[in-house]
Amino acid sequence: MKNLTKRFTAIPLYIQILIGMILGIIIGIIALRLNGEKLIHDWLVPWGQLFIRLLQLIAIPLVFVTLIKGIAGLKDVQTFSRLGIKTMLLYLCFISASVVFGMGLGLTVKPGMLVNRETVSEIKERYESIIAEKAVAAEEVKDQGPLNFLNDIVPHNIVRAASNNSNMLQVIFFAVMFAVALLMVSKDKSKPVVALFNGLDDIIMKMVDFIIRAAPLGVTALMAGLVMDFKGDISMFSALGVYALTVVVAMLVIMFIFYPLVIALFVRKMRMKDFIRAMYPVQLFAFTTSSSAATLPINLETTQRELKVSEDVASFVLPMGVTINMDGTACYQAVAILFIAQVLGIDLSLSQLVVLLVMTVLSSIGTPGIPGGTYVILAMVLMSIGIPAEGLALIIGIDRPLDMLRTSVNVTGDATVACIIDRNYHISST
Ligand code: ASP
Predict the structure, then answer these.
(1) Ligand 1, residues at Cβ distance < 6 Å
(2) 411: Cβ–Cβ under 8 A, 6 or more apart, which residues?
């Protein structure tokens, strides 16, 4: 047994995760066939939940410490602003390109035209109550005025902000402010604090290491649970087949064609093949957890170890990307909104399309990196272009697998930007 464990841990992580996924799917299918769902729910699924809990537990300290360490490690505030501006601009370009791509697909494929009316009313009935909740939440946000997003970024209490993983943007704000101040005080004052954060970073990374070791088991449990939960949605999936397929194709194109091409064009000495291979464990991890925040630890490790991105760039670009850069979510939102409009027979004018573009770019920035993080935000975007939020009912039933895919895209986008910035940053700082 000991020998077997030793052999298993010697296998590369992404293969371990892949084995875990396949095992989970097999267990889920067997449980469904043999009516063993309760057994699996009671004895296996909790391990998956525990694994996710551990990842959530580490998310805020990880973002906080890595960001401060990353910024404090820069030469001065000027270097920080250069790096910050470049990162934000790149994020914005990637998100906008993803939205345009999603809108292009939605407008040409027109998946909403291909759903029959009976399916539409059946779906609406099924998800009525969930949608009402999201609509109320979105209405509250919408009523707060156009500059309200600033309140979402600036917390009034850091302890409160840090008590909820979906407030990551607020934690990032505090960490960046703290780190910039740290860069600006005299070296004799900042030195012990920087040393403290360097030490904390090592400790947190060690904790991350412990958690990641449990990934194959966590992934097995999560996949088994997902297979069982998904069984009722299979019919829904085929009813909305063209829509689902449009999203899947969009995600695969961004992940396996767009990013590798960008890497080949803008990152010297990195081959597309190597990038794709290195990203497998990160993508599989994002796929099973549906959370960019939960995937941050493994993304940090992979970009530094496999893609040779320097620590200062990775620890600045990736934690920022967790909530800010969501290409998969942005593209998905565009396709989803157009789909809903088409099903409901709402013809969007050119000006509505422009609002859609801008709102989708901005709203994907505010989407928390958690499973289904996009929903309240999506409801708000829908209402802002005059589509009833109830339209969400049409897509919520098959969202989980699409969430899994878009999360994989989100984290790959962060790593791509980290690679580009790494090259530029080092070229300009040498
Ligand atoms: N689950 C996504 C993420 O964590 C967010 C979303 O699109 O719902 O990146």
Answers:
(1) 290-292, 326, 329, 367, 369-374, 403, 406-407, 410
(2) 282, 283, 285, 286, 292, 295, 299
